Amino acid sequence: MSAELPSTLRFEHEAMNTTFGLRLQHPDPGSAAGIAHQCFELLDRLEGKLSRYIEDSDISRINTMQAGETLYLTEETHACLLRAFDYHARTGGLFDITLGRPIEHRKNPSNTSSPTIEGSLVIHPDTPAVTCQEPGRELDLGGIGKGFALDQLKEHLAVWGVEAGLLSAGASTQLAFGGLDWPVDLTGGNETFRITLRDAALSASGTGIQGSHIVHPDGDRIPLPWKHVWLTASNATAADVWSTTVMLLTENEVLQVPGQIEEVLSLHVEDDTGIRLID
Fold first, then answer.
1. Which sign, positive or negative, has the C-alpha torsion 233, 238, 239, 243?
2. C-alpha of 61 from chain center
3. pLDDT digits 0-9 by tens, 65-77
4. Cβ–Cβ under 8 Å, residues 179 and 162
5. Cα(258)–Cα(270) distance, integer angstroms
6. How far apart are CA 138 and CA 279, in angstroms?
7. Is the Cα torsion angle 114, 63, 84, 172 positive or negative in sign?
């Protein structure tokens, strides 16, 4: 996906059902390896809290709550959920992490209709806790979890003295920091184009990339209008959220994104006519 990259040390780790990559600019390979190991321990910790497929994770425990129950969370889970619920409001409900049941139905289709969306969860703003008002909502962080993890890695790398690098979560999300230019090649259905990523995050969404995570709150009857979306933003969490959301927008709505959303730095979309820049 990238070419002609700056000279850095590279490390990889499997987590969150993808391969995380670290390209770190550091003068000491031994120290860099130790830092990368700490990063991977952080990723494993986050996955253990945020994955709906790990039985005792915070998310799995939320998904089995009954009416009136309150569950106390780790600080990382609470921070991620607060951002997700904030984006739910900012996107007019299009970005919704509580659609776990219809997402699972999309990923594993059957002859039954898509599950009815019901239930209600409340995230406490000042206490790391969630209360179930009515059961039925199941969380799936597929549209935000990897970006959130990359932002967490960046914060920890700053503490460990790493000043520049490129972090990636598979082919879907990348985060560049430290003032270096990273040429990134993005491939659509019939063409490839190159952008330069510098102190920004890039997220790619598409029916072939993470379509199984993209469900319209109004149901499966609404088709996804775009084949691919590539969006850069000021942080990886925002890039993940907005690239997922743009997949659900009409053309007229997409044309308004660059001017209305301050976090969004650039936006490319692909439909049957090809790839185009929205500015």
1. negative
2. 21
3. 999 999 999 999 9
4. no
5. 16
6. 36
7. negative
What percent of the chain is predicted at pLDDT more than 90?
A: 70
Residue 234: Cβ within 10 Å count: 14
| CA 18 vs CA 27, 47, 48, 210: distances in Å | 28, 11, 14, 12
Give the pair of three-digit tokens for residue 189: 């259905």
What's the confidence (pLDDT) of residue 117?
Answer: 74
pLDDT of residue 109: 63
Region 52-66: mean pLDDT is: 96
Which residues 6+ apart lie within 8 Å of 172 measured at CB? Answer: 18, 146, 203, 204, 205, 209, 210, 240
CB 201 within 8 A of CB 130: no
d(CA 86, CA 108): 29
Give the SS3 label for residue 211.
helix
Candidates 39, 213, 29, 65; CA nearest to 138 is 65
Q: Give the Å distances, CA to CA, from 173 to 1, 231, 266.
A: 11, 10, 14
Q: How far apart are CA 139 and CA 50, in angstroms?
A: 9
| pTM for the model | 0.91
Q: What is the pLDDT of residue 209?
A: 52
Task: State yes or no: pLDDT of 107 exceeds 90.
Answer: no
DSSP 82-106: HHHHHHHHHTTT-S-TTBHHHHHHH
Determine the length of the chain: 279
Cα angle vertex 185, ends 270, 278, to 5°? 35
**Residue 182 contacts by C-beta under 8 Å, 6 or more apart in sequence?**
2, 5, 6, 166, 174, 176, 196, 197, 198
